[in-house]
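hiii, so i know i said id send this last week but things got crazy w the move. better late than never?? heres the sequnce for the chain we talked about at the cafe, plus the structure i predicted for it. fair warning i was half asleep when i ran it
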Amino acid sequence: MKAEHIWMDQGMQTFRMLLVPHKDTWKECNIPKVAEEFLVPSVMIYQGIHGGKMAKAASFLNIDTPNVVVSAIKQSENGKDIIFRCVETAGLAAKTTLDLQFAGRKWTGISDHMR
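okay and structure toks below
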């Protein structure tokens, strides 16, 4: 650990910062969700060159609990299922519904109280 690292932090570096003034605690203001949205903004795809029966706007995934974040979506090892990894960010028990509107599927789960 005492070695000199002469090439560390060389050259142009770019940083982004978000200041979030708030009155309540970080839990009430849902700072983890604000941080996630800042670090990994949602992808929007616009495809409007043809008419169709589907809505002009839709979402891949909706989640009804503000303190639950979907941290990963992956295919199962056997390839027959999709796994949604969710994280409750405030240390509270939560009942959450994941809604895949385009597929007509919903799942409801309950997280345990972590403290």
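btw Strands lie at 62-63, 68-75, 82-88, 94-100, 105-111. thought thatd interest u
miss u guys!!
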